[in-house]
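S.,

Sequence below, as promised.
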Amino acid sequence: MTPLHLAISRLGSNDDPTLSDEPMSVGTQERRKKRKSEEIRLEALALRRAKDVSKIQEDVLNRTVVILKVTPLAQESLDELKSSVEQLYEFATAIGGDIARLGNERVIIAPPGVKVEKSRIETSN
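The prediction came back faster than expected:
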């Protein structure tokens, strides 16, 4: 067994009946649908145009945490970037979600129920 295969095998097994190839009962199908509707997804996107904001808002409403690289739009127009980030901030606040900067190039937008921990890393000189 290769080290990669060994590492991957430690991630989990297929003991979950909803992951088998066997036919599912109605109860199993309904549990799977419920679990799917409760899932929170994570998506990494690049903000290239101001009109991409509506797609990002839709993703967040559909329980997706979005990590957004803003440098593509920053290279085109700082005014559009500022406006887009303001829209996303107002949106996240209005729906009870969260938004935070991740360094100089990325922003994270989270749906309601997901809190982004905003902590400062201090460096000593």
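Residues 40-116 form a domain with the Translation Initiation Factor IF3 fold (CATH 3.30.110.150).

Coffee later?
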